């Protein structure tokens, strides 16, 4: 284990005026806090932060970063607190250590390769300082180096995560060595057989060709110089993992893969690329079929380079990539390189929304860090503000959902699936029930609570920030309203057809749709429900030779006088005098009740309600609002569902008289003409009979339920009084009155 003074000396070697006391304090504090804790290998736990610190000294980072490395596991794994660290080391270091603690929590979430890109973004969004990322990568590197003693499943999980998330992240940041080592270590744990086979083969080839590879590099550099070409030549043997992934990509066997040595030649102009190629081809024999000119014909992704493979003196193949610095940048950063270099150099706080730019910026930052004279100041003023406009949350199963900043669980639900959004009634964030309007934070685990048959409240449309959620909420509301109106339309048609003595079925509507000017049955029904399509037009379309009765015509015209057919529950038909009954009942829009939603169809419970009654509304998902008098026993069924209750009150327009339904129960003597007398009494009182059904028939009395339409409670009371006064009426009461 590295001693305290050794660590200080290592930093002092590249940073003479360092704050030694800070390093010493951090060393002692972390050592004491981790105390007797052990790693899986049995080593003292403190060896781990110490090694992480050592990795960072190799990258010549400032003492603050090295101190953070020493402290990086203290908040998570010991009784150390942010407050204590702030007091001992200052709030800046406290903030960095806390940043690492936050990142560590992410490791606990299951991850899938498919969402690796979003996980990398989440990491960048959470790490608000570049030092947090650097310590995190060094931490991961040391953990990968010492993965051996872990349980096999844990090893596999960590190796996979490293392969999917951290190695590519290091690559994007331009830390190629870090990337190579992370990949190699992961590869070894994920596929030991392949790793060993390829490593053995590479070692064998290396031994056989080492001398000649060095000779080629020497010769090439010298020849280019002779010809006046300024070039940087870098050669390396490919890693076992890069050989393996090439075998996978191109479906090659190990024997077919002989070009495991490669050189990259970077020159300063397109012309120099071709001149270099000429020199290479004059010096060594080329492998036929391997030459590619991606300069004159760039790849789809804008990649440009000359590729060729030559055969060296001991017949080994060597691959060469020849390109300019610009081409190299494009190869490394992708197309974003163009934009980056047009901007010129920028430093300090940079906010880039495009991801490729963000990675490019990150990489240049690391480059500046590596070459900078004053890394401390640079680090202090470099804020990572990457992907701050996004927020990344998890489903309970570990799926990562990326949302715009400011998103709520409503957006989350719709991002998971529009059905989940439509049925969302609540949510849990990190296991706690929270309001669905809570603003989500990075790393939140969100569980959506669903209930079938819900309608998203229209108010959500303004809360949602994602277009997907907004559109879905609007669509659900529209569908719902159409459904409500088509339900009403269906009822109206049922009655209209029944009155005409005709059979009605939805199917029978199908061939009529063209005639009625609608494409779908639901649309036609909704049009009837909204009053845009007359039910009798539908009837006439279905039965062109149907002759309307006088009553039906009267009903349609809304005439006050006339006779109606009344069908009883037993199927008897009476002709009774009365006013239009089609008028007040059926039109969902017309019932003037305040408190009901604008687009919510309102209907009455089976016993009706009349002005003067105290009323309450019950929301019926899929149907609208049902109005009950407050004394109605039916309401007890909703006692446990307080969310369904709405406060409503009458909102009558004096100028626009409306009728309202009320149900009465009546016992009448079985005498000839008694039913006619009852009907007449009701008619004289200006109360409509909407329906009449016989409940029981004893030899002397008939009990019946009559649905009336009245102006208000006084009108109802007066009608009841008049009925009671009739000798044929034994008893009459309002049902549930
Ligand atoms: Mn650690």
From TrEMBL:
Keywords tagged on the record: GTP-binding, Nucleotide-binding
Keyword Nucleotide-binding: yes
Taxonomic superkingdom: Bacteria
GO molecular function: GTP binding; GTP diphosphokinase activity; guanosine-3',5'-bis(diphosphate) 3'-diphosphatase activity
PROSITE patterns with a match to the protein in the record: ACT, HD, TGS
Leader sequence residues: none
One GO CC term, this protein: plasma membrane
Domain ACT: 663-737
EC number from the UniProt entry: 2.7.6.5
Reactions this protein catalyses: GTP + ATP = guanosine 3'-diphosphate 5'-triphosphate + AMP
Domain named HD: residues: 45-144
GO biological process, one term: response to starvation
Domain TGS as annotated: residue spans: 389-450
Family: Belongs to the relA/spoT family.
Physiological role: In eubacteria ppGpp (guanosine 3'-diphosphate 5'-diphosphate) is a mediator of the stringent response that coordinates a variety of cellular activities in response to changes in nutritional abundance.
Record's protein name: GTP pyrophosphokinase rsh
Lineage: Bacteria, Pseudomonadati, Pseudomonadota, Alphaproteobacteria, Hyphomicrobiales
């Amino acid at each position: 284990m590295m001693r305290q003074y050794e660590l200080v000396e290592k930093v002092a070697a590249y940073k003479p005026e360092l704050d030694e006391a800070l390093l010493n304090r951090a060393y002692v504090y972390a050592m004491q806090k981790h105390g007797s804790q052990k790693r899986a290998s049995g080593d003292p736990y403190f060896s781990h932060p110490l090694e992480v610190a050592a990795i960072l000294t190799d990258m010549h980072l400032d003492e603050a970063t090295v101190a953070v490395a020493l402290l990086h596991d203290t908040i998570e794994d010991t009784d150390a607190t942010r407050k204590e660290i702030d007091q001992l080391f200052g709030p800046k270091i406290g903030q960095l250590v806390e940043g690492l603690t936050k990142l560590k929590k992410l490791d606990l979430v299951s991850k899938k390769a498919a969402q690796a890109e979003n996980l990398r973004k989440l990491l960048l969004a959470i790490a608000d300082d570049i030092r947090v990322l650097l310590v995190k990568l060094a931490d991961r590197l040391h953990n990968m180096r010492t993965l051996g003693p872990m349980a096999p499943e844990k090893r596999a999980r960590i190796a996979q995560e490293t392969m999917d998330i951290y190695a590519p992240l290091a690559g994007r940041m331009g830390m190629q060595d870090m990337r190579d080592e992370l990949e190699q270590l992961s590869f070894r744990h994920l596929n030991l057989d392949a790793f060993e086979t390829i490593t053995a083969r590479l070692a064998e080839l290396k031994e056989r060709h080492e001398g000649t590879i060095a000779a080629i590099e020497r010769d090439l550099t010298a020849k280019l110089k002779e010809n006046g070409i300024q070039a940087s030549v870098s050669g390396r043997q490919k890693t076992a993992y890069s050989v393996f992934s090439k075998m996978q990509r191109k479906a090659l066997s190990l024997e077919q893969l002989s070009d495991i040595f490669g050189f990259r030649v970077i020159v300063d102009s397109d012309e120099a690329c071709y001149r270099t190629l000429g020199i290479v081809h004059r010096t060594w024999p080329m492998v036929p079929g391997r030459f590619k000119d991606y300069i004159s014909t760039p790849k789809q992704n804008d990649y440009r380079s000359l590729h060729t493979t030559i055969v060296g003196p001991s017949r080994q193949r060597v691959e060469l990539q020849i390109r300019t610095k610009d081409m190299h940048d494009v190869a490394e950063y992708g197309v974003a390189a163009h934009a980056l270099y047009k901007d010129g150099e920028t430093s300090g706080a940079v906010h880039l929304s495009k991801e490729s730019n963000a990675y490019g910026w990150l990489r240049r930052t690391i480059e500046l860090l590596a070459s900078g004279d004053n890394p401390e100041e640079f680090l202090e003023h470099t804020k990572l503000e990457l992907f701050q406009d996004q927020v990344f949350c998890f489903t309970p199963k570990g799926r990562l959902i990326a949302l715009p900043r400011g998103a709520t669980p409503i957006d989350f639900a719709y991002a998971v699936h529009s059905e989940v959004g439509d049925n969302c009634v609540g949510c849990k964030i990190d296991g706690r029930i929270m309001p669905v309007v809570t603003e989500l934070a990075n790393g939140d685990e969100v569980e959506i609570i669903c209930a079938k048959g819900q309608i998203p409240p229209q108010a959500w449309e303004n809360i949602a920030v994602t277009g997907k959620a907004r559109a879905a909420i609007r669509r659900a509301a529209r569908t719902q309203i159409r459904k409500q109106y088509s339900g009403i339309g269906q009822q109206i048609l049922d009655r209209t057809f029944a009155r005409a003595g005709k059979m009605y079925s939805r199917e029978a509507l199908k061939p009529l749709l063209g005639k009625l000017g609608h494409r779908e049955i639901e649309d036609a029904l909704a049009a009837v429900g909204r009053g845009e399509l007359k039910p009798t037009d539908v009837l006439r379309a279905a039965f062109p030779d149907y002759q309307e009765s006088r009553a039906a015509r009267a009903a349609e015209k809304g005439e006050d006088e006339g006779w109606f057919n009344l069908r009883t529950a037993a199927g008897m038909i009476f002709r009774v005098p009365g006013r239009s009954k089609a008028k007040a009942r059926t039109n969902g829009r017309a019932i003037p009740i305040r408190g009901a939603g604008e687009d919510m169809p309102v209907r009455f419970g089976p016993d009706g309600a009349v002005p003067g009654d105290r009323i309450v509304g019950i929301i019926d998902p899929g149907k609208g609002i049902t109005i009950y008098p407050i004394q109605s026993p039916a309401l007890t069924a909703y006692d446990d569902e307080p969310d369904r209750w709405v406060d409503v009150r009458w909102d009558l327009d004096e100028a626009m008289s409306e009728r309202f339904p009320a149900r009465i129960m009546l016992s009448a003597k079985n005498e000839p003409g008694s039913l006619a007398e009852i009907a007449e009494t009701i008619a004289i009182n200006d109360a409509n009979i909407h329906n009449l059904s016989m409940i029981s028939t004893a030899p002397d009395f008939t009990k019946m339920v009559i649905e009336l339409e009245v102006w208000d409670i006084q009108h109802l009371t007066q009608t009841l009084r008049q009925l009671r006064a009739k000798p044929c009426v034994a008893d009459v009461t309002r049902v549930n009155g």
